[in-house]
Write a structure and sequence with these properties.
Glyco_hydro_1_AS, alpha/beta, 12 strands, glycosidase, GH_1_N_CS, globular, single chain, EC 3.2.1.-
């Protein structure tokens, strides 16, 4: 019978800015997430050169309330415990700890909130997995410093990280520095807090900001090991295999080049401690000249990560000559794959792709892998009897978990799996409540109505069985239709 080991970390994943709410409580400052409007045009609006980082009456801002985890965390953690979570991936809102980002002393009230959350997790036997920065840098750093284009943010991030490590040593073992750090290549505003003006070189700004983040991540890793050597520090990347659309050698090369820039550029710096060989040509061809300080390359080399974590939602298909066949995806697009179905939001569904990318990453890096995001955003409907039959989510997760189990049989070391949005929250890409991922339904809607009541979906009990059986139940059941 196929099963994972008893120390496998089953759980769920969230982000502070998407579920906490309380956006002005406890001394919290505004973050870039707080000025991102709700709705399907969110990404278009925030990446427009005229984006001004201000709140506007014509927009709604669902991140301000999230699902009110700020006040209801005990109720939610109890539900996670009921499901059998071994770990819970959460993030800390940087602007709760340093409201502007550049202060020298942290906000004690913000730290006390996370004291309560982490203590509750530990009391319930749930291992906290903490992301230090998850798409929500303090707004002041974006408006007054230009985001990660400014080298000073390295110092501010290291100070912030040290505060967290000192505060939670002995309570938090697993840490991730930046969420989906390679996402900067596709969305510099969300990932780097950089609003690129029309006259600026987007690639120059993006990779300069990314260099600053990579140095900051390495310095945070160094700080963690100085403060508590038992801490485990991981990187976190969007991972997706890139398939050539055909056997045309031009398509094969185009896909190969796209895949290494996406999956291996940041991964090589985090794990191998150096920029990959292919980066030199990419920089030269795109007019990119990185400004580095003396010692930067040594910092990267000497402070590599302990494990590699990833989000996986879909694969990507590419060809050299694009036409009218572009596909949608998790901030990146390729061409439509004729062999795959897609979600309600156009994200192609490819469980085998998870097995493929796990094998590729493990063969390249030989580090433990941790799947910290995977899930299906879908419309859920409450039946007349109050039940929620989300068989489509169960089918999606079952197939992907089987892909993970196959990779483990292939010899890949996978240390855990945390399903994205284990409780419904605000979508990062669209700012919608209606794009639901959770095992737990939250009664809140795009128009702001709803009681915030929590309800267990059918997938809640399904995932409970998966965890209880260490994955064996994946092979015991027929597809729920």
């Amino acid at each position: 019978m196929k099963q994972v080991s008893s120390d496998f970390l089953w759980g769920g994943a969230t982000a502070a800015n998407q579920l906490e709410g309380g956006y002005q409580e406890g001394g919290k400052g505004l973050s870039i997430a707080d000025v991102m409007p709700g709705g399907k045009q969110r990404m278009k609006i925030i990446h427009d050169p005229t984006f001004d980082f201000e709140l506007h009456e014509e927009h709604s801002y669902p991140n301000h309330e999230g699902i009110d985890f700020y006040h209801r965390y005990k109720e939610d953690i109890a539900l996670f415990k009921e499901m059998g979570f071994k770990t819970f991936r959460m993030s800390i809102a940087w602007s709760r700890i340093f409201p502007n980002g550049d202060e020298t002393q942290p906000n004690e009230e913000g730290l006390q909130f996370y004291d309560r959350v982490i203590d509750e997790l530990v009391a319930q036997g749930i291992e906290p997995l903490v992301t230090i920065s998850h798409y929500e840098m303090p707004l002041h750093l974006a408006k007054h410093y230009g985001g990660w284009r400014d080298r000073r943010l390295v110092t501010y991030f290291e100070r912030y990280s040290r505060v967290l490590f000192e505060r939670y040593q002995g309570k938090v073992k697993y840490w991730l520095t930046f969420n989906e750090i390679n996402g900067a290549q596709f969305m510099p505003m969300l990932s780097l807090g950089i609003a690129v003006r029309e006259e600026e070189n987007t690639l120059q700004l993006t990779y300069q900001g990314l260099h600053h983040q990579l140095v900051a991540s390495a310095l945070a890793t160094k700080a963690a090991r100085e403060i508590d050597p038992s801490m485990q520090i991981g990187c976190m990347l969007i991972a997706a295999p890139v398939y050539p659309y055909s056997s045309n050698p031009d398509d094969v090369w185009y896909a190969h080049d796209a895949e290494r820039m996406m999956n291996f550029f940041c991964g090589d710096v985090h794990v191998r401690g150096k920029y990959p060989s292919f980066a030199k040509r990419f920089f030269e061809e795109n007019g990119i000249e990185l400004a580095m300080e003396d010692g930067d390359l040594d910092i990267l080399k000497e402070n590599t990560v302990d494990f590699f974590s990833l989000s996986y939602y879909m694969s990507r298909t590419e060809k050299a000559e694009k036409g009218q066949d572009e596909a949608e995806g998790n901030i990146m697009s390729g061409v439509k794959n004729p062999y795959l179905q897609a979600s309600d939001w156009g994200w192609e569904i490819d469980p085998t792709g998870l097995r493929v990318i796990l094998n590729k990453l493990y063969e390249r890096y030989e580090l433990p892998l941790f799947i910290v995001e995977n899930g299906l955003g879908a419309y859920d409907q409450i039946e007349s009897d109050g039940t929620i039959h989300d068989h489509y989510r169960i089918d999606y997760l079952r197939d992907h978990l089987k892909g993970m189990m196959d990779a483990i049989e292939d010899g890949v070391e996978v240390m855990g799996y945390t399903s994205w949005g284990c409780i419904d929250l605000v979508s990062a890409s669209t700012g919608e409540y209606s794009k639901r991922y959770g095992f737990i339904y939250v009664d809140r809607h795009d128009d702001g109505t709803g009681t915030l009541e929590r309800k267990r979906k059918e997938s809640f009990f399904w995932y409970q069985d998966v965890i209880r059986s260490q994955g064996a139940s994946l092979y015991e059941e027929e597809s729920v239709k």
